[in-house]
Fold this sequence. Notes:
The chain has helices at about 40-50, 120-125, 130-140, 160-170, 185-190, 205-210, 230-235, 260-265, 280-295, 310-320; strands spanning about 1-5, 15-20, 30-40, 65-70, 80-85, 105, 115, 150, 175-180, 195-200, 220-225, 235-245, 265-270, 300-305, 325-330. The protein is α/β, with parallel strands linked by helices. Strands 3, 4, 5, 6, 7, 14 and 15 form a 7-stranded mixed β-sheet that branches. The longest helix has 16 residues, at about 280-295. It is globular and about 60 Å long. The chain starts with a strand and ends with a strand. About 50% of the residues are buried. NADP nicotinamide-adenine-dinucleotide phosphate binds next to helix 1, helix 3 and helix 4.
Amino acid sequence: MRAIQFTQHGDYQQLHVVDLAQPTPAAGEVLVKMTAAAVNPVDNTVRLGYMPGAKQPPQVPGVEGVGTIVNSTVHGLSSGQRVIVRVGAKGFGVWDDGVWQEYVAALPDEISLIPIPDAVSDVQAAGMASSYLTAVYALTITGGFQAGQRVLAPAVGGAVGNALVQVAHALGASRVLTTAGSTAKAEKARKAGYTDVIDLSQESLSEGVMRLTDGAGVHVAVDSVGGAITGQALSSLAQEGTLVVIGYAGGTETTASVTDLVFKEARVLGLNLFTRPASLIAQAKETMLRLAGEGKIKPLVGQTFPLAEAAEAQRFLMEERPFGRVVLTM
Ligand SMILES: NC(=O)c1ccc[n+]([C@@H]2O[C@H](COP(=O)([O-])OP(=O)(O)OC[C@H]3O[C@@H](n4cnc5c(N)ncnc54)[C@H](OP(=O)(O)O)[C@@H]3O)[C@@H](O)[C@H]2O)c1
């Protein structure tokens, strides 16, 4: 079977197409024929060798994807069923070989194999877990979001940023503010129906938030960008607001005003979904599936690449700042 593999840490060109033996499921595991897989920033972190505790090469990347169950004797899962396969208990793409391969043997627990609603295509579902599970978890469980509150979710074109905007709207936010790094991206977002988009090439994040909220700020901000955006997101909070930091696409260092913390009595929290308890991830999953089934969230796919072009797909994600998720098709 075809797979993507790197045999040493390094740049995108370390990703090669290889021929591997089809995995044999262990007792209790399920064989899944993969149809699509997500390309995530974390795949880049792992390949570069920057992920603490990750499996050493040779490594097949990919923390999530989608496929069809080949044969199942497991209660509740049937042959032919479409499922999301995610990092879960086996640690796909980080602690074990990942899903950028044609077949995967997966554990059938409730956070590793997730049945897909009919309304969602395979390509849309390929990246749903890291986008929407993260969004629901960060907003509701970590951030304590309540319907009627104002939310800031920077990066409308990012996979997680876009999911956050959709989830916040779907869960009843009174206002959802977001950003785009360029005027062209801001225009694209507005054409796609996103109204409160702050064009970061024209004004700073905190200026934009204060302009759009008449100085009131937001109750919950979820920051998947990091860098300068983190400090500015803190400045954008309302009194007793909460900032949840989940990503570092734009950098790992920030400058924050201590007075934003003190005078606003702000809360700042970090989230790493990989290490959260399965019971809480399952809770977020139920919300995600409900919203998807009701058609209230629609995964935004920016670009698809055939599996063999995984190196270019990863470069494209990291360097071209696409509008929507990057997906590999098998
Ligand atoms: N903590 C967790 O559990 C968790 C879970 C999932 C993802 N994450 C993290 O969340 C972050 C976002 O993930 P994602 O899948 O949404 O990534 P993505 O699709 O690449 O989106 C990242 C966005 O960040 C903005 N950005 C600003 N400066 C950037 C820069 N220098 N390089 C690239 N992008 C930059 C871009 O928007 P503009 O072009 O509009 O500025 C881009 O759309 C990543 O760091 C990822 O590892 C964390």
